[in-house]
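Hi support team,

I submitted a single chain yesterday and got back a structure, but I'm not sure I'm reading the token output correctly. Could someone confirm the output below corresponds to the sequence I sent? I've pasted both exactly as they appear in my results page.

Thanks,
R.
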Amino acid sequence: MKIDTILPSSLNNQDKKSIQGKEKTPATSFEQVLKKAKNSYQEGKTVSSVAEPCTVNAPLSVTPVQLTNNVSTALNMAEDALNSLEKFGELLSRPETQPNKLERVVTEMSSTARKLEEVVSSLPQESSLKTMLEQISTLAAKEVAKYERGDYSG
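Hi R., thanks for writing in. Yes, this is the structure output for that exact sequence:
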């Protein structure tokens, strides 16, 4: 969708004509809206734009989730892989980074990606978590391959 009516200078002639024919209505101040809502509430009327008050002690409806051992392990490994990718990106952004530091992070990332692939294969095929973990694993493996190919060497 093209948006071309952001700035007055970008309006086309048709837009300018449609705007010129409209009347301007005065804006309602926040104070006026607040007073109106307060008066309506005190009179017992409900105003659709004002939220109902809630009590501080209202209980939350939270359903506990029990993670299986495979899922918990996979999530921990995914977090490790993402941390390695983040560390790798930070090191690449600094020109003074020593190659041996990069090598350590790449080795860690490669190991984590392989372990993650093993855990992912044990998850059910219809699991949405499996798709996400496969993407993380693939990204880590891709970055390792790019490093080994020499894409990041100056």
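A quick pointer for reading it: The two ends are 41 Å apart (CA to CA). Let us know if anything else looks off.

Best,
Support desk
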